[in-house]
Design a protein that fits this description.
This protein is α+β, with helices and mostly antiparallel strands and about 190 residues long.
Length: about 190
């Protein structure tokens, strides 16, 4: 008797995906048994109908209760799992994009490191026609040439003051701008 119960329970458990939906559809252990025996699962004939008839309704109720109890939790876990998989795919795509941008930036950085600081034709040395300093009314200002512009500089207190001269060197213009700047700053010469 124990071997037959184990066989019936084992058989129903192993084939529950076929047996339970058919039982839910027919609503009768006899109709379910006959339908299975006629072709869907002929192996059911190994179990006596009386045994099958006793276990099937109990197994169906237990299965329904388990589905009700754990089905919602299983569905929730399944949804979370799918959300996590989706999030992982999005993250992988973002990582691919960032890796591509990183490679492009590294290449650009290598190119910038190999490039000279100034364009090759740029020289910031004073042209021959420009002096290294200019005096106006006893005040002395340094001359700086940042191609293509000339400017004057002088330390006043703790700060360096600048005067823009322009693209062409003109000593008179520089002396006029020095007087205006010193007047503006209130420097006595």
């Amino acid at each position: 008797m124990t071997a037959e119960k184990t066989d019936a329970v084992t058989f129903i458990t192993e084939h529950r995906d076929i047996i339970l939906p058919l039982y839910a559809e027919t609503g009768s252990p006899k109709k379910t048994y006959d339908s299975l025996a006629d072709g869907k699962l002929p192996e059911v004939k190994q179990i006596a109908f009386a045994t099958f008839k006793q276990y099937l309704p109990v197994f169906a109720k237990v299965s329904d209760r388990l589905r009700d109890t754990y089905g919602k939790e299983t569905d929730r876990i399944r949804r979370e799992n799918e959300n996590l998989k989706s999030g992982m795919e999005e993250s992988r795509e973002k990582i691919r994009i960032l890796e591509k941008e990183n490679a492009e930036l590294r290449q650009e950085n290598r190119e910038l490191k190999n490039r000279p600081a100034y364009p090759p034709d740029r020289t910031d040395t004073l042209p021959e026609n420009a002096p290294s300093h200019v005096e106006a009314d006893g005040s002395r200002w340094g001359v700086q040439y940042k191609k293509p512009y000339f400017r004057l500089f002088k330390k006043v207190g703790t700060k360096t003051k600048w005067i823009h001269i322009g693209r062409e060197w003109d000593t008179e213009k520089a002396q006029t701008k020095i007087r205006e700047k010193e007047k503006q700053l209130g420097i006595d010469t």
